[in-house]
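pinning this so it doesn't scroll away 📌
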Amino acid sequence: MTKPRRNVQFQHRGSNGHHGRRASISETSEGGSEPGSPKMNGASEVSQEEKESPPQSEYDKKKATFVTRTIWTLVMIAGFFVSMFAGHIYVIGIVTAVQIVSFKEVIAIANVPSRAKNLPFTRSLNWYFLGTTMYFLYGESVIYYFKHIILVDRVLLPFATHHRFISFMLYVIGFVFFVGSLKKGHYRFQFTQFAWTHMALALINVQSHFILNNIFEGMIWFFLPASLVITNDIFAYICGITFGRTQLIKLSPKKTVEGFVGAWILTIFFGFAMTNVLMRYRYFICPVNDLGANIFTGLQCDPNPVFLPQTHTIPLPLLLHTPPVTFSIAPMQFHILVFATFASLIAPFGGFFASGLKRTFKVKDFGESIPGHGGITDRMDCQFIMGFFAYMYYQSFIAVYRASVGGVIEMAVQGLTGEEQVEVLKGLGKYLVGQGMVGSEVGDCLAGVMARRR
């Protein structure tokens, strides 16, 4: 008598190779035919093409990637310098485009298309919160740096004086709409997207706001920090492949301690030399008072004392019987040591943070915005924190706070009544006539206007 056969499994229909069960609806839909799918009518053509075209060697792949990367690097460098010399408004446009694309890339890596398809307002809310945030941050910058224009315009004045309340109400509208769009069975996904969106806004758009303010304070405060980060990355690569031996951090296995320290030293020398060049041009050191200015028209201002050379004396020991050493150097040359140190030792951790984020979501790059480089965020991960630092350091140790025309107008508009503003105007008119800065006819005209007003 034959023994019964055990553990014999029969393949069911439609099981697609999964033993003992039928395929799920999701598996059937994913494996099913779609128009133009290579699994059906195009399968034979694809296999035929694969047989005819020889596989590309590893050397050819690396060579093609290197060529593409080099070309686009040169294109980006050329575009950056052209926009910088063309005027501040073009650099502002580049910063705006960078933060929008970076926001899109960061949001995309946490998106789940199958769920987002069932929640059509999720993506719309992401962009709404981006628009609201940019309206608030850009409005703050424009009002602060161009208050002498905004506050004297009848149409723009209400928007300027109530800007923060308008921005807050725009955000509240988005918040209410988000709560109203919550759908049962998708709560975790929706709240995750809500938190992820706000994290992206804080890490990208808020820090980009300070980069924008650096441009308004003077082109040097934008160009110098950005160039320090770029050159430090190049120096770290050169030093790493030359004498790098010790791994620096596990998140980036190719980073070495020797490359890290070597790049720090070389970046300090580069920063010292670059600062010495940029300080000579008013276009770089003057704050923006005309968005139409470019490298040919230039800017005019009283330079910040940090750019003016100061004489220092180093006394020598009496035993040497030599006079003390005297030399002149601008204070900015000392400040650049701090900038270069931050760009070399702290800013790279922005890149390490981005590497950890990509490893979390198991992606190689944030996107494919730049051929050969990946996404915009892959190239800007260190720039955001560097620009933030540059603004905070400038405002804390370098900025000179003086009364400005815009500041005086703001105080008069927001702090004085209409009658008090008229009195200020009358007193200012008398002062200008008395100093001979305007003719007496101006004072008479002003007095006549005041009399008719009464």
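📌 and the second one:
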Amino acid sequence: MSPATFIPALSLITVLLSRLASAQTFTSCNPLNTTTCPSNPALSTNHTFDLLTSSFPDSAWNTTAGTLTYPSTGADFTIATRGDTPTIQSKFYLFGGECEVWLRAAPGQGVVSSIVLQSDDLDEVDWELVGGNNTHVQSNYFGKGNTTSYDRALWHPVADPQKDFHNYTTRWTHEQLEWFIDGAPIRTLKYAEANGGKNFPQTPMNVRIGVWAAGDKDNNNYTVEWAGGVTDYNKGPYTMSVSSVRVRDFSSGKEYSYGDTSGSWDSIKIAPGNSTISDELNKPPPMTASQRWNHLSPGAKAGVAGAVGASCVVMILLAAVYCVRQRRAGRKERALADGQFEYETRELMEYRAKMSKGGFAVSSREV
């Protein structure tokens, strides 16, 4: 067993209740009970979601509770009032793979930040970061929702998880599970060590990231104790920040389905074809105008240049015609104005001539 640190004051009951800490865990159709569950869309690629420059894309993630904000530190998951449980879940599944999350845990007594990989048949791999514990984080796992034993949770030292970003990575094959903090391995679980493989997580899993108040006063006492005490919402808000998520699917194909109700890794069927989510994530961004021009063939460029040249000639001709018409119209208007001026000038001169000859004099008999 890889080195890990147990919290001495942690009772067996509170370890048991760590199962309840995974607030993001649920399944809408359990393949252990039926063979009609929908297939799981495969990721079938390696992709990094840089949350410092963009948000979680709707093509790959669902916000299942609350809302996320995106300040300069990445994606923020915030408990502002009682009942807030901001959570995001991937639309894709990994069938073996890696999940690497750069995360700063939410502070606050009773507040739990979680990274969960979970399958439809309740295989599960967890990171749990308790807000009141600034020296350790917890790793855990479950197979098929089995809670008959409670010795799976281990606590690992980490410096200031509520103050600093750390890299929490899970690497998973059908042979073993590994947990890493900041690139250093801190735990390894072999297939046979998980109850002979019966409790080993081995079916396609999606990714769930969120924060919740395990210390809410309405939760049972054991859950509140595990979370470090009752949550005081008046001291909030409590924010978990995620700056980056990298996921890698070790399998390739369009989707995964369960061949029977055994829940074993070798019963999983991989449908051939391209992953629609992978295609969407790897789709190149729209080209700029200069990039589109550079991608044209010489003949196409010549055609475009010719069309542009012809358009310019047409525009010049139209402008010339417009100017000629305007000049002609201006001449007509000037001629009319000059004619009117000459007419008014003649009338004025005739009036002055008559005035000088007394043509408009008033007689004394009219006075």
